[in-house]
Design goal:
The chain has one helix at 52-56. It is elongated, with a radius of gyration of 25 Å. The protein has a domain at 1-38. The chain contains 1 helix and no strands.
């Protein structure tokens, strides 16, 4: 058994294309489809969660990040 998860859009005529790996060609398959609508098309999966900055602003105020001296810059040969 192999599980394949992907996000797809149903066309206006109600057809969902299901591309399968080449290794499945010519096989009889038992297929289980779970339909779960995506909450909002405007929400990007890599977006910041709502109120992220309000909840996290100042979270490290008690332990500020300090950058130690970086030392001398290495002078390299020109390529």
């Amino acid at each position: 058994m192999k599980t394949i998860r992907f996000t797809s859009q149903v066309s206006n005529d109600g057809i969902l294309n299901l591309p399968l790996p080449d290794e499945m060609k010519g096989q009889n398959l038992d297929i289980l489809v779970v339909l779960q609508p995506i909450q909002s098309s405007s929400t990007h999966e890599n977006a910041w969660p709502p109120d992220f900055f309000k909840k996290t602003y100042g979270a490290t105020a008690h332990d500020p990040i300090e950058r130690p001296p970086q030392g001398e810059f290495e002078i390299r040969d020109i390529l």
